[in-house]
Amino acid sequence: MLEEQLKKIRSAERISSAAVITALTTDFFTLHGDRLQADDPAVTVGYGCFHQQTALFVGVNRGATLQQRLDYHFGALSPAGYRKVNRGLSQAEKFGWPVITLINMPGAAADVAAELNGQSQALAATISQMGRLTVPNIALFLGEGESGGALALANSNRILMLENSIYSVASPEAVQAILKGDEPQDLTKYLPMTAAQLAKLGLVDQIIAEDKQTMVRIDQALQQQLAELTTWSAVQLQQQRTEKYLTVLAKFA
Amino acid sequence: MSHLPAVGTWRQCPKCQRNVHRLEWGSLQICPHCGYYLRLTATQRLQQLATEFQPLPEITAAAPFAFPGYQAKLAQAQQQTGATEALTAGVATLQQQRFMLGVMDSHFMMGTLNMIVGARLRQVIAAAKTQQLPLVLVIASGGARMQEGILSLLQMNTVLAAYDDLNAAGNYTLNILTDPTMGGVSASFAFAADTVIAEAGATIGFAGKRVIQKTSREPLPPAFQSAASLYQQGQLDAVVARTDLAAVVGQLLRLHQRK
Questions:
Q1: What are the extents of the domains in chain A?
Q2: Domain named CoA carboxyltransferase N-terminal: which ranges (chain B) (predicted)?
Q3: Spatial CB neighbours of A221, under 8 Å, sequence gap ≥ 6
């Protein structure tokens, strides 16, 4: 049931980006700020050694405690956050590092500052840069990913999802709201958003089981996917990204 | 025969509340008393910005998912607008200059981005590239269409990729942001053009005002998300009156003529 899944992926015990970065990398160095305005603590952008090679990690911070959640703005990135991501992406491209994004975030920031600071353009810039990267990028959904923010961080060669994760156009609550007056329902009946449903569409490439071995499974999955992608040329990587999404859409055309 | 005027002859201005006759609204739909702009339909927009218009082959498809109430809404929108979807695209001529023109219609499910609108956008972008023509998009959209779920979201990156590709090919691109330009459209291709201008009075942003108020409980600054305030913040090249729009488009097309 969607409701139980949401409870799981929004709980304080949910596997965090920080936990993945700590478990999988050594020598991790964190970028600070967007060089323009601010540092957004809702996203960690940094690079570390992952199986004998440097890789860029972009991890959304949702926070476990109430204080953390407030500090991290519940994982909703600000425009400064997307600009920090773009700065990291440029470095990864410059030095030939693969990019791994770790996603568990609500829809985009809904506040005045985000709008005044150019949220739309910051999002578009990240979508665009992720799509055109000349290095491999892999998105891993640790929890939920919704709206333009998740799309920006998941515009990648490979999409991996923990089995209880969801990826949706908007939060289930927001989708429910357009069913005005209707009883709350399991929205997965109408719109594919679970890992299994999206794998069936060909959007998700690999589902990672959740058990005591989850971290080991994440490590192996990322390693395997990267092993293949690193043999591709820049043009192949760019083309595969565009075709990946058009192929999914073509199934409904 | 009834002595009452036909329905649609008089329409109250939403701003000044006066009753305005159809002929006074005119083809540009501007209130003669207070200057308020009604939202234009795609047909009215084509009349404003093209002296000739040859539509592209029209892409259609069945709705991808059986979302409750969606079929009825689509049928209603089609009946009300006479269009098959929220985007009309084709080759246009204005002041002897040919260009690819895409027009979104807010009267069709608030111009929301879905499978067909996305496919037609990629089509008009690709046509601009192959025919080596400038691209002009008149944008009016509430964002991604919820009823098509993840497929609507995936229009953002696929349309933007096509748009980036067109810019890389050297074609001139011009986006006209009209009321409203929001959500996934605002955060993908709306600002991707060489020139981004807005029609006066348009609301432009990502998250809607109601959502922001409900989520952050902050007071909204005056003229929040208005074309005028975005212009002041440096996010737009120009804010243009509806009456001047065709002239400005003509000017920009002339300046970008290929030698």
A1: 2-250
A2: 9-259
A3: A140, A160, A206, A208
The pLDDT tens digits for B62-97 are: 999 999 999 999 999 999 999 999 999 999 999 999
Contact at CB, A178 and B146, closer than 8 angstroms: yes
Amino acid B258: pLDDT? 74
Locate the domains of chain B by residue range.
1-38, 40-255
**Residues 6+ positions from A204 with CB-CB distance below 8 Å:** A159, A160, A161, A167, A195, A198
Smallest CA–CA distance from A118 into chain B, residue: B235
CA distance B140 to B161: 20
**Residues lower than pLDDT 70 in chain A:** 181-184
CA B196 to CA B94: how far, in whole Å?
Answer: 19
**Non-local CB neighbours of A23 within 8 Å, separated by 6+ positions:** A215, A219
Q: DSSP E strands: which ranges in chain B? A: 10-12, 19-21, 52-55, 87-94, 97-104, 135-141, 173-181, 195-199, 238-240
Report the gap between the CA of B26 and the closest CA in chain A (Å): 34
Q: Distance from A245 to chain B by nearest Cα, in Å?
A: 7
Q: pLDDT digits over B213-240, tens only?
A: 988 888 999 999 999 999 999 999 999 9
Burial class (CB in 10 A: 0-12, 13-18, 19+), A18: middle
Is the CATH code 3.40.50.2300 the one for domain A2-250?
A: no
CATH number given to B40-255: 3.90.226.10
Please check whether residue B185 is in contact with residue B139, taking contact to mean a CB–CB distance below 8 angstroms. yes
Tell me the backbone φ, ψ of residue B199, rounded to 5 degrees. -80, 140
